[in-house]
Amino acid sequence: MPWRNLTGLAKATAIIAVILLVSTGLCGLNFAAYGLLKQGSSAFLGTALVVTGALELLTMAVSAVFLVAYGIAFIIHQVIRAFRKSEPEQ
Is residue 15 scored above 80 in pLDDT? Predict the structure, then answer.
C-alpha cells in the first residue's frame, strides 16, 4: 500500500486521495453504464445505478472537503513550525 510508511496527516491524506480517485472512476463507469441502458430495460438496474452513482458523488464531495481541510491543516502546521524555529532561545 502506498501509505504503509506514512503517519498522521500524510497517511490520512493518501487514503482520502485514493478514495476520491476510486469514487471518481466508479462514478464514470456508472455514468457510462447508465447511458448504455436502453429505455424499457431493467428498471431495477437503472435504479441501482442511480443510487450507487449518488453515493459515489457524495463520497467524492466528502473526500474533496477532507482533502481541502487536510491541506489547510498542513499549511497551518508548517506556519506554526516555522515560527517556533524562528523564536530566539532564552
Answer: yes
